[in-house]
Write a structure and sequence with these properties.
Strand order of the largest sheet: 3-2-7
Shape: flat
Number of strands: 12
Helix content: 25-40%
Mean pLDDT: 76
Order of helices and strands: HHHEHHEEEEEEHEHEHHHEHHEE
Strand content: 5-15%
Oligomer: single chain
Number of helices: 12
Radius of gyration: 32 Å
Largest sheet: 3 strands, antiparallel
Low-confidence stretches: 1-33, 419-434
Structural class: alpha+beta
């Protein structure tokens, strides 16, 4: 079986996270046994993603935010490179089913959920990885690393000295892939002292087991209180004789039950007041969601969850006390301390994976609206600085050369203003005359 035909069959049922419908809070079982989630297993983490909406929300927002970056390949000077057209094409259409944004959402979701994500590069036979035909994100549940029996981690210089091959499975299909064609992206490593564990990522969910269970159980309790209220109260007989209370006869109990089931209740179309000849007393038994303080408990756990994922809690829709200015600052924090460093890490990993030595991947977020303010502030500060030095120059306090040096420019303009060749030394630029 050829490589391309095997890939076509293997990924025939590949899905995109954006198109998958994920149900929110629901019971794990109908026996009322509570919520049981094993976050130490891959399947358990997937169940949490499906059932716990705050986890789904924070992961989806992070994976979507990173797609705002503009990707390109530049040379070592930072100028656009045209040497790798196939890699440029992959950044538009990585495979026949996904756009670059779809691809990255799936990749980033797996990374946050499992602590690790895999990319399979389909490389034509005899070609290097810069000629990769397509890129696929493989579910970590379907990837198995086959280790070399005599592998020595600290003495290895190539991946194939540690891993013999990767086996990627989907339903009944399994293919063996050379280790250099699989890119493993790890969010956080568990242990560098263990050969196999050092190639395994640790999910951030592992430290949130209690918080996740509290949130899910609280949501389950709110659902139960709203849908299955149980006994609203007790109707007791007030009739008494010389001995004490007189119990209702079976016929009287049956009449009250039948009347309540057929005519009365708190739902639409039911009577809210019962009229009966029986001499009864009412004792309420309802629970108040407010008194149980379920929402307060959920909020505290959500703050810990969002802190773990480094996502500002001020950006949540239920943060009523947050001002617009605070939200804008929170967005800048999100990009500067989370999204941009994560994207730069991806760029470095891609550069190494594809073996680029004269170019590199670059991702740019300068166009993002919340970051424009910072650029504007820097430009305004630079303009104010220029005006200050200009005044000092006009008054003879500093020389022209000092003025240019303080503004970060070369002291002298050499040659034509049209640059034909540059020699950079530190912060100075020497321009050869045209």
């Amino acid at each position: 079986m050829s490589v391309l035909s095997g890939i076509r069959d293997f990924f025939s049922s590949t899905w995109t996270l954006q198109s998958r419908k994920v149900d929110f809070f629901s019971h794990f079982n109908a026996s009322g046994m509570g919520i049981h989630v094993n976050l130490m297993t891959v399947f358990g983490r997937w169940q949490v993603y499906k059932k716990c909406s705050p986890i789904l929300t924070v992961i989806d927002r992070l994976s979507t935010a990173i797609t705002n970056g503009h990707w390109s390949i530049v040379d070592l000077k930072g100028d656009p490179s045209t040497k790798y057209p196939q890699l440029e094409n992959l950044m538009q259409k990585p495979n026949l089913m996904q756009s670059w944004s779809d691809f990255f959402i799936q990749l980033d979701t797996f990374k946050y959920l499992y602590g690790q994500a895999y990319i399979y590069a389909v490389v034509p036979v005899g070609m290097d990885k810069t000629k990769t035909a397509s890129l696929w994100v493989a579910d970590p549940q379907s990837v198995e690393a086959v280790w070399q029996t005599d592998a020595k981690l600290y003495y290895a210089s190539e991946l194939k000295q540690i891993i013999k091959e990767y086996r990627i499975s989907l339903e009944s299909q399994t293919i063996a892939v050379e280790p250099e064609h699989v890119l493993s992206i790890i969010d956080k490593r568990e242990d560098m002292n263990n050969r196999q564990v050092s190639f395994t990522g640790e999910s951030r969910l592992n430290s949130l087991e209690k918080e996740i269970k509290i949130v899910m159980q609280a949501q389950e309790a709110i659902l139960e209180l709203n849908t299955d209220r149980g006994a609203m109260g007790i109707l007791t007989n007030k009739k008494r004789d010389q001995v004490g209370s007189i119990a209702m006869t079976p016929e009287e109990k049956a009449d009250l039950h039948n009347e309540y089931r057929s005519k009365f209740g708190i739902t639409k179309g039911r009577h809210k007041v019962m009229i009966t000849e029986a001499d009864v007393n009412w004792q309420a038994m309802t629970f108040s969601i407010k008194d149980l303080m379920l929402y307060e408990g959920i909020k505290e756990c959500l703050e810990r969850i969002f802190d773990t994922f480094n996502y500002p809690f001020e950006l949540m829709s239920n943060s009523k006390d947050t001002t617009f200015a605070n939200k804008n600052e929170a967005k800048k924090f999100l990009y500067q301390d989370n999204i941009i460093p994560a994207a730069q890490k991806y760029a470095e990993i891609f550069t190494t994976f594809f073996g680029l030595t004269d170019a590199k991947f670059k991702v740019d977020f300068s166009h993002v609206e919340c970051l424009q303010e910072g650029i504007k502030e820097r430009n305004e500060a630079k303009r104010a600085l220029a005006q200050t030095y200009h005044t000092m120059f006009q008054n003879g306090i500093i020389t022209r050369e000092e003025y240019r040096k303080e503004m970060g420019m070369a002291e002298q303009i050499l040659g034509s203003t049209f640059v034909t060749d540059e020699t950079r030394t530190g912060n100075s630029v020497r321009i050869t005359q045209s």
